[in-house]
Structures are given as C-alpha cells and as structure tokens.
Amino acid sequence: MKRIVAMCVALGLFCGLALSIAPSAEAKTVIKIAGMKPEGEPETVGMHKFGEYLEKLSNGKYEVKVYPNSQLGKEDSYIDQTKRGTIQMCATGTQMSKFHPAMAMLETPMLYEDLDHAHRAMKGDTFKLITDGFAEKSGMRTMNVFPLGFRHFYTKNPVKSIDDIKGLKMRVPNIPLYTNFAKEAGISGQPMPFAEVMTSIESGAIDGGDSPLSDIASTGVYEYAPEVTKTGHILVLHSLFINDKFYKNLPEQDRKWFDEAAEMAAEDVWKLMVQADQDAEKKITAGKGKISEPTPELKKYMTEAGERSWTLFTDPNSKQHVPNAKEILESAKRYAK
Ligand code: G3P
After folding, report:
1. For ligand 1, is residue 194 a contact (CB within 6 Å)?
2. Where are the domains of the chain?
3. CB 3.0 to 4.6 Å from 184: which of 139, 251, 305, 329, for a disulfide?
4. pTM of the entire structure?
C-alpha cells in the first residue's frame, strides 16, 4: 500500500512538473499588426481576417493582435516600427512609395475600368511588376493587396460641370501621386492629414476632398461637405506588410501559413467591397449626404487628367520616375475586359 501511495505521489509530482513546463513549450508568438482605419472598414476587416486565418492554420502557434485606427501611432510612425521590427506587420498603401516609387502606381489614377479589372491585374503580373524590388529597399515585404474602394469627391457645393471642379481647394493626401493628379485636374490640391479635413472645411480653407465611400461614411465628412460626386478616379489599394527579416527567419512551414492567411484575407476583402460600398452609400444618404453620378463630360475630363498624370512615373526627369512604368501600365491594360 505504501508503495502505491509513493508511486501516486511521484506521478503527481511528475505531472505537475510537466504541466508547469507545458505552457512555455507551447507559448504563442504574438504578432502585432497596425493600421489606420477604424473598425468595420475594409482595411481593418482585412487585418482581422488575416489574424483568424493565421491562428487557425498554425493551430494557435501565432496570436495576432490587431491595432486599427492609428492606435500604435500615425501611418509614418507604424511604418517605421514595422521597418525596425518593433512590430511585425502593418497595413498601408502608397505611403510606401517613399521607399520604392513604383508602389504609388498601385493607385494610378483612371487606370481601372472597375473593381474586377483591378482584381485581375493585382492577381497577375501588374502587382508583381509594381512590388518587385520593394523588400530590398524597404526591409519590408508586401504580403497581399486588397481594395478600400474608389475615391470620389465630397464638396460643399454640387459638382455638375468641369467648371465646377476647376480651382476647387481640395484636401489631398501628402503623396506626389495625389498632388500631381490634382494639378492635372485643375484642382488646387491642399496636402494635409485626413484628421484636419473637417475643421478645414468649416473654416473655409478647403471646399472638400476625395475618399472611398467607406471613409466618407465612417468619418461623417458628408455632414460637412454633403455633395458626393462618384468620379471614382483612384482605386485605393492597401496591403499587409511584414518585416522582411522576421519573415525570412520563420520556418518554411510558418512562412507558408503567413502567405496563405494573407492571400485568403485579401480575397475576402475583394469579395465584400461591393457590399461595403452599398452600405456606405446608405449611411451617407440617410444623413445629410447626396450622391450624384458625374456627367459624361466630367468623366472624360477626369480620364484625360488621370492619363496625363501618369507622366509622373514615365518621365525619366521626374523625381517619382519608375523605370518599368510603361511595362506596368501596359500590363494593367491587358487585364481590362
Ligand atoms: O494609399 C494612400 C491613401 O490611403 C491615403 O488616403 O485619404 O486615407 O489619407 P487617405
């Protein structure tokens, strides 16, 4: 009997020891991922989807913590944190053109006929041609690409003709692609962070700006500049980026999980985009917003301005010159219907 008791005590001690070791042997690796948009917007949905897929594929080896809405700092700051490896991942778009000018060509104005056209180009060579060489220059790797929606104008007064757009003072993101396109469209582009838009409209410093419908709806900017004109001149495309050193140090199987999770998350966002735009339209029109289609003349004017703006990338004398710009443009056009 004594011997049985002693064996049970020994077994109990062994199990206790084993249990105390087990958690650290199976400790999760936490992946921090930062973004700029609020909850519910396509970018944030994409980050959460990535987390769900990675946790599932890795059977819980990785735990993804999502920090949307600039919780880890503004875009420039969290890009820098990803580059330095303080955090592993982030979501952003053409801000990455400061490392590799071709990244701005993801949002080339008036390039895509519709969402499906862009989707085909991004799944094909166009995306590869744009991102080729980015990791070497930036220390970060582009994991995927997904849409946030086409940009449309929001203004205080209706935009019915070409004359209505000329000379408007419009907020633009502080990215050469945007300032250059505004110039070509005869707009007075006012570079500023989105956070300053509402007060700048109120003070009269700007007449409006442009954003995807999901941004116009979630920020409530349509309460300040209620006339939304659906010019769809730029498709905003964002990606998930990962610190390249971190990625390269992952075991091969784990890299596959990261790739697969990123790809599936992006595909989910492409699918939900049409519904997201419809939901945003409902919210805007249920409030003070009014949504109008541009006249054919205005649409043509925007198309021509967009095409002129491509010289930003094709002109060898431009600071934003992209050596393979013509190849990128031709590739994108091949994916049209
Ligand atoms: O890709 C750049 C774009 O996301 C910036 O747009 O209007 O969110 O500052 P915005």
Report:
1. yes
2. 28-334
3. 305
4. 0.91
